Structures are given as structure tokens and as C-alpha cells.
From TrEMBL:
Organism ancestry: Bacteria, Bacillati, Actinomycetota, Actinomycetes, Micrococcales
Keywords annotated in UniProt: Flavoprotein, FMN, Iron, Iron-sulfur, Metal-binding, Oxidoreductase
Domain NADH:flavin oxidoreductase/NADH oxidase N-terminal, chain residue ranges per copy: 9-335
Family (UniProt): In the N-terminal section; belongs to the NADH:flavin oxidoreductase/NADH oxidase family.
Protein name, UniProt field: FAD-dependent oxidoreductase
Known cofactor(s): [4Fe-4S] cluster; FMN
Coiled-coil annotated spans: none
Keyword Ribonucleoprotein listed: no
Length: 640
């Protein structure tokens, strides 16, 4: 018995039988050709998720039209028959591994369009301000233009059916063009497409009808934001009313989420929002519609099972979790829950790449988007690899080297694996980071990896002379500026705090980067009175903007005092002094936490200089994010 009976139970969407209740939620990949056609790279990415046991794979958006706006390069388009070969190849590839595939169709982005075309205004339901540049007003679509888009949906649906797609999804959420029509906050029309809920939904219901007429028998789903999560946006009650209208139009499935560009952290929920953060949206729709509802948003196997068992949803939409591990469903079915690689919800290389029009990547799964090119195969010559440092870079390097068939000895100076990842992951909102350490440890149980804890390796250690290849992943050291009093008894490094060093009630954190800001959030949650002092004009300036939105909101809600643009000049027994735009200020505190950042620990790399079998990676080369260290480690070990 796997313990995930509801997740693994077969399901039905319209006429389509699914082997389980796991659906890959639609996510953009930025892997298309410049013309917007599916590529072999993208097909391999989706196929890997289908072969991993996913009940239904949904693609990212494909535009049905370029009549009134043009999507960014890399996003797919199905507005002409030129799309048919790629669509057919995708369907054939997924069917070849026993999978099912749904094509997501979009009318466009409207006021959320990424780049404003100088030759034509962005479009919308009404003359709404463009999201990124409110000085630009959108052009309301004319009725005949709405009819063109509806017809384009029918044409695209016919192509999807001809290509062998199993279902079609309509992209209707988070304030994109269809949502702009459905939402009272953006639709001020006085014609048949504005006013009442039914009128505002008319564009959507006509699209549903056109899709069903042109792809007879194919199930049709619709992604709906139940609550926009901003003042003046859609409420849950309005979302429920819209869902009733959409269901009556003949939908077979509604995907329930929350958010909008005005609350973008709900569009791509970071770790701060916690588990199952949008299951209440699915529950709200289950209360008013009889068709199946899919929940999304930071779902783990456990809370997906709980949501389905409680009747809060009928299907579990797994997005970034399936980026991190394409075998998410298959491992559950095999009873191997512990082998599912966690998504750490960092957004850095999935959403972050999309923001810069780069192909999808993953912090914890370096094979994403390069499934064919980055196959881990046995090395022609197998040897002895010594990995020095048990942080994320060292752990991933050891795993991949062992998969290549090498015998691996991993040396860690501390008493536990994880490096700085272990203490940094103490907050509950970072529990998936802790889970990554356990995942690596689990992988080592069936790989030729010997772990040596409490063992310091230097250039004269016998292990370095016995190794065919040496991977140095010794991490970083705290950066401590020459500030008077910073060596006082009331001062601790941020990692010492995470390791459990006691703190007083009044705490000042010197440094407002990600480490200092997360520590402040954790301390404030424990009831401490916290102040952050930061030299720059903003906190966590290197953090992806989506995660930062939630961080700043939660810091404000928990009453954390923030002093940006201030330089710490001294520390004393009663707190610290900082100089800002209005001069010097003293902040009283019983504990001062130093979070000035880190510097590379280059001692071993320098001591081993001259040996041609040494490979350094991660923070000991330059301070990097977790994903950068993991990806560098994977690539280093892949060629050994």
C-alpha cells in the first residue's frame, strides 16, 4: 500500500480516462523556435514527464492568433498549419511512452503583454493601463475583432485534434486577455461583452463553444483565478459566479488558482507561501460546480493526497514539482516517495529564466530542457573520485559521479551533510531545502558513495593522492568587515543563529540580503523585535522579484523595522550604530547578527594548484545560489 490511493486512483475528464489524478500544470518553457513552433528539445521535455507516470501532461501557452498582438520569441503559436508537424510530433512522442497530452491555447496577454509593440497599442477588454507602463492605455477590442479571436480558437482546436492531442486547455487566468474580459475590474464595456457576469464571460463561453465544435470529443479545461488577491480585483464570490457560467458552457475541468500580475507571487508561489497555498481556491469551486476541479500551488504528495481525500479537488496539478522530478507520479506508484526530488520553490531557473526569455531550467534538476543531451551514462573508464565538501555542490557531484560508475569518497568536515544549506534551511518555509539533503542521502544508499563525516582534508591528505579525480566544494566563509565591536560577545554570524545559538528579544541584523532577510522573518515569527540594517537602498536586491514580493509583505506584516541606505559603523554592548541619510542612529539590541555575505573558501583550491585532476565548484569559486552550485556540480561530474 503506497499511502497515496487518491492521487493514484484513475480519473476521468469528459471522455478521457486518466491512469491517475496527477496532471502536469501548464507552464511556459521558452523552448520554441523564433517562429513559435515546437522543437525537439521541448518535445523531449514534455515526453520525459509523460514517461515518468504523469496522468496528463499539459503544455504551456500556444497563441491562436497574431492578429492583434505578438508573443515573445520562444513561446509557441498554433495560428497556422505550420504548427501541425510540431504538434503531431509532440502528440506522437507522448503517446509512444503511454502518455496523454493537452494543448493549452491562449487568446493573448492583453494589458500584461511583455513588450509594447511601437506599431500597435496593446489590446484589452477596455482602455486599461498597460501593466508595466501605466502611461500606455490599451485599445479595447472591437466586436468584430473578438469574433476573429473566437474563430481562431476554433481553427487552433481543429489543428490540435488533427495532430492527435488528447485534450485542450484554455488560458483564462491571472489577468491575461480572457480574464480581462471576465473581470469587473478590467471590463467596463457597455456592449454584449460587458456588464453582467454572463456578458463578461461571453468571450470565454464563445471560445469554449468554438473549441468543442472544432475538436469534437476532446475534453476542454479552463484555468481560472478564483481570487485576484489585490484590492479591487476579483473576490472569491465573483470567481465562483464566473465558474458557474463557464461550467454551464460545457467545460470538462476547471483548474483553480489565485493571483494576478498585481499579486504575482500567487502566480508563481515561492516557498514563503507554504504548502497547498491555493487549495482553498479549488475548494471554493467544488462548492458551486459539479464538474471536476484541479488544485495547484505548492502541492507535495502528502497534501495533494489530503486535498483529494477531503474532496477539496478532483485532480492534483503539479507544476514545478514535475520540473524538479519528471517521475513524481511514477515514484509514488512504485512506493518510492522518498526518491522524489523536492522542488525547493526558489523560482530561480524556471520562472527566473522565463523573465529573461531564456529556456526553462531548474535549480535542483540540471537535466531540465536538455533531457536528451544530458543523459547520465556510464563512463568508459571508471575510477576513484574524491569529493571534498558535503554542501549542495559536493552532494550533487558525488551523486552524478557515482551514477557514471565511479567509486566516490565524500569528505565533510562537519558532523552532518548539507553544508550551509543545513543551517540556512531551519525555517519551516524552507523545509524543502532540508528535504533535498535527505534526498541526496537517500540516493547514496544505492550508489557507490562512501561518506566520511567529521573529516578535514588538506593538500597532504592521503585521500587526495589516491584519487583519480578531485572535486573541491569547500564552500564559503563569512564576510566580516572591519567594524569596531563586531567581535563582541553579543554578536553572532547568521549561520550561528540558524545552528541554534540563543538570541535575545531585541535583535538587529546587520545585512539585508537574502540570508539576513530570511533570518529576520524567522525571528519575527518567533516573537522577537527585529531591525534590519542594510547598506543598499533595498532589501534582498539579488532575489527574484516574485519571491521578494512575498518576503517584503511578510516582513511588514510581522513588524520588522527596516533601515536601508544605512552603513553599520560600530557595535557595542547595547546594540549597533549606523549612519544613514539623516546621520547616525543607534539601534538598541541584546543580540547583533552579522549577515554581511560570504567570501569563497579558496584555501584548499590554492593548496592543490598545479594538479591536473582538481575541479573546484560552488561557493569556493565564487558565492553562488544553490541552483548554480548544483548545476555546476552536475556538469563537472557528467564529464568525468
Amino acid at each position: 500500500m503506497t499511502g497515496f490511493a487518491h492521487v493514484l486512483k484513475p480519473g476521468r475528464i469528459g471522455t478521457l480516462e486518466l491512469p491517475n489524478r496527477v496532471i502536469m500544470a501548464p507552464m511556459g518553457t521558452e523552448m520554441g523556435t523564433p517562429e513559435g513552433l515546437f522543437t525537439e528539445r521541448e518535445i523531449a521535455y514534455y515526453t520525459e514527464r509523460a514517461s515518468g507516470g504523469t496522468g496528463l501532461v499539459m503544455t504551456g501557452i500556444s497563441a491562436v492568433s497574431e492578429d492583434y498582438e505578438t508573443l515573445n520569441a520562444g513561446l509557441c503559436c498554433v495560428h497556422t498549419d505550420a504548427a501541425l508537424p510540431g504538434l503531431t510530433a509532440l502528440a506522437d512522442s507522448i503517446h509512444a511512452v503511454g502518455g496523454l497530452v493537452s494543448l493549452q491555447l491562449t487568446a493573448g496577454l492583453g494589458r500584461n503583454i511583455n513588450v509594447i509593440d511601437p506599431d500597435r497599442l496593446p489590446i484589452s477588454a477596455s482602455d486599461n493601463p498597460h501593466y508595466a507602463d501605466p502611461s500606455v492605455l490599451c485599445r479595447p477590442l472591437e466586436i468584430d475583432e473578438i469574433h476573429v479571436l473566437v474563430r481562431r480558437f476554433g481553427e487552433a482546436a481543429a489543428r490540435a485534434a488533427a495532430a492527435g492531442m488528447d485534450a485542450i486547455d484554455i488560458h483564462g487566468h491571472t489577468g491575461y486577455l480572457i480574464d480581462q474580459f471576465m473581470s469587473a475590474c478590467w471590463n467596463r464595456r457597455t456592449d454584449v461583452y460587458g456588464g453582467s457576469v454572463e456578458n463578461r464571460c461571453r468571450f470565454a463561453t464563445e471560445i469554449i463553444a468554438a473549441v468543442k465544435a472544432n475538436a469534437p470529443g476532446l475534453p476542454v479545461s479552463f484555468r481560472l483565478s478564483v481570487n485576484h488577491r489585490f484590492a479591487g480585483g476579483r473576490t472569491t464570490a465573483e470567481g465562483q459566479a464566473i465558474a458557474v457560467v463557464l461550467a454551464a458552457a460545457g467545460l470538462d475541468l476547471i483548474i483553480a488558482d489565485d493571483g494576478s500580475y498585481e499579486a504575482m507571487d500567487y502566480v508563481f508561489p515561492p516557498y514563503y507561501l507554504g504548502d497547498a497555498c491555493m487549495v482553498p481556491a479549488a475548494r471554493a469551486l467544488k462548492d458551486v460546480v459539479s464538474i471536476p476541479v484541479m488544485a495547484v500551488g505548492n502541492l507535495t504528495p502528502e497534501n495533494a493526497e489530503a486535498a483529494l481525500a477531503a474532496g477539496d479537488a478532483d485532480f492534483a496539478g503539479i507544476g514545478r514539482g514535475l520540473i524538479a522530478d519528471p517521475e513524481w507520479a511514477g515514484k509514488l506508484a512504485a512506493g518510492n516517495r522518498a526518491d522524489i526530488r523536492p522542488c525547493i520553490r526558489c523560482n530561480s531557473m524556471c520562472v527566473g529564466n522565463a523573465f529573461f526569455a531564456l529556456p526553462l531550467g531548474c535549480a535542483v534538476n540540471p537535466q531540465v530542457g536538455l533531457e536528451r543531451e544530458r543523459r547520465v551514462e556510464k563512463a568508459d573508464v571508471r575510477g576513484h573520485v574524491v569529493v571534498i565538501g558535503g554542501g549542495p555542490g559536493g552532494l550533487e557531484a558525488a551523486r552524478v559521479a557515482a551514477l557514471r560508475g565511479h567509486s566516490v569518497d565524500l569528505y565533510e568536515a562537519g558532523s552532518k551533510l548539507g553544508g550551509v544549506l543545513l543551517p540556512a534551511a531551519t525555517p519551516e518555509f524552507k523545509k524543502e531545502l532540508r528535504a533535498m539533503i535527505a534526498w541526496w542521502e537517500r540516493q547514496f544508499t544505492h550508489l557507490p558513495v562512501s561518506v566520511h563525516l567529521d573529516t578535514t582534508i588538506d593538500a597532504d591528505s592521503l585521500a587526495t593522492f589516491e584519487a583519480d579525480e578531485i572535486i573541491v566544494a569547500t564552500g564559503s566563509l563569512p564576510l566580516l568587515p572591519p567594524i569596531p565591536g563586531l567581535d563582541g560577545p553579543n554578536v553572532m554570524d547568521v549561520l550561528d543563529f540558524h545552528r541554534g545559538a540563543p538570541v535575545g528579544h531585541n535583535v538587529v541584523i546587520a545585512g539585508g540580503g537574502l540570508s539576513g532577510s530570511d533570518a529576520a522573518l524567522e525571528l519575527a515569527g518567533q516573537g522577537c523585535n527585529v531591525t534590519i540594517v542594510e547598506l543598499a537602498d533595498e532589501l534582498a536586491r539579488d532575489m527574484i522579484v516574485i519571491n521578494r514580493i512575498t518576503l517584503l509583505r511578510e516582513l511588514a506584516e510581522k513588524g520588522v523595522r527596516i533601515l536601508t541606505g544605512h552603513t553599520v559603523t560600530s557595535v557595542d554592548a547595547d546594540g549597533l550604530t549606523a549612519t544613514g541619510p539623516e546621520g547616525a542612529v543607534h539601534i538598541a539590541a541584546s543580540t547583533v547578527i552579522a549577515a554581511f555575505g560570504v567570501r569563497p573558501n579558496t584555501a584548499l583550491t590554492q593548496a592543490l594548484a598545479g594538479r591536473d585532476n582538481v575541479h573546484s565548484l560552488g561557493d569556493c569559486v565564487h558565492p553562488a545560489k544553490v541552483g548554480e552550485a548544483i548545476n555546476a556540480a552536475f556538469m563537472t561530474a557528467l564529464v568525468l
